[in-house]
Amino acid sequence: MKFFEPLSGNKQNILSINFTAIFFGSILFTCLFKIAPERVWLNLLISLLGALIGWVLGNAGSPVSKAEKEAFGELAKVVATFFSGYLVSKLDRFLERVLFTNNQIDENSWISVCFFSSALIVTSVTVFLNRTYGLKPEN
Length: 139
Known about the structure:
Layout: H1 10-35, H2 40-60, H3 66-99, E1 100-101, E2 104-105, H4 107-134
Antiparallel strand pairs: 1-2
């Protein structure tokens, strides 16, 4: 295609990554209104939280300089300590109470988990790939 000829190397990859992210983001946004219209605003906030956490993870997973690599390494140690210690011990009881009601699956809660997970994955992968292909590491 003539349109893509001036885009060489990583520019074409970045363009493909961003078009794919826009495509999946628009599907996610459409699903917000179609799947659970009575909970649109709650699911929108949950998706936004997932996207923000995905943005942090995507940035932390793709440092472009030595300074970022050192800072993200220290941050990863702190976060891993928090997750392995406190959060994992509390997460099980929280998920049982939120996702199941009287030993029955709570459909609305699972829909919210899917929106959160989808936004987190799309955003973290997009940010990671854009930083990996778009930013050159410093020598």
